[in-house]
Every structure is written in structure tokens, then in C-alpha cells.
Amino acid sequence: MGGESHDLVAGGTPEQIVDSLMGDRSPRNIRACLPAEDQDFFDRDFRQAMAGATEELDLGPVDDLLAYWWHVARMKATGEYQAVLAEGRRVQADIESGEYVPGRPLREVLAERAAELGVKLDL
């Protein structure tokens, strides 16, 4: 799918978007696979990361940023993002009401998921 128009990918099915993301992790494709309402945020973050990379001569933060946005694009395409937000709201409501919320510490879960994606997080 890497050779197809990026506009087609953005309007594609969740499966097409995920296939595109799996085959092409370029900034242009990640941006095209994001919902329109996220593209300006991606642009801002990417430009800021590239400016920093130019000053520091270090592409590590750019790679981390692209991994983050790749994951967001994939989650939003599949509906997983909304499910995560809904679960977060449910847990937050339980915490605020004084309910015991079993589970692992968030830092541990985030570190594990980041490692699976090859993303370095400073927690």
C-alpha cells in the first residue's frame, strides 16, 4: 500500500489504514493515516522534534515521536483509542468514588507497552 495515494489511505477502512501503517512508517504516511483533527497536532510535534534534531544532531526524539504517532494512528483507526479512553474514564470514576481499583501501576504498564513498540519512555 506504500505506493498508493495518501488521501486514499486516510479515507480507507481500518484494515487498509493498519496495513498502510505496517508497511510504511514514514512521517508522511503516519500523518495521512491520522484522523484530520489530529494532523495539525502531528505537524506541530513533528516540526518541533525536527527543529530539536537539527540543533542537537540527534534523531532519537524524532524516532520516539514517530513511534508515538504511529501507535495513535493505529489505535484510532481500529477504535482501540476510544476503548482505552472509555476504560480510563471508568477507572477514574471508580478512583474518585473511593472504589478499590485492582491492577498494576500505570508506569509499569506504559513501560511494558512502550518496550513492545520499541519506544523509549522516561517515566
UniProtKB/TrEMBL annotation:
**Protein name per its UniProtKB record:** DUF6247 family protein
Q: Which Pfam families match?
A: DUF6247
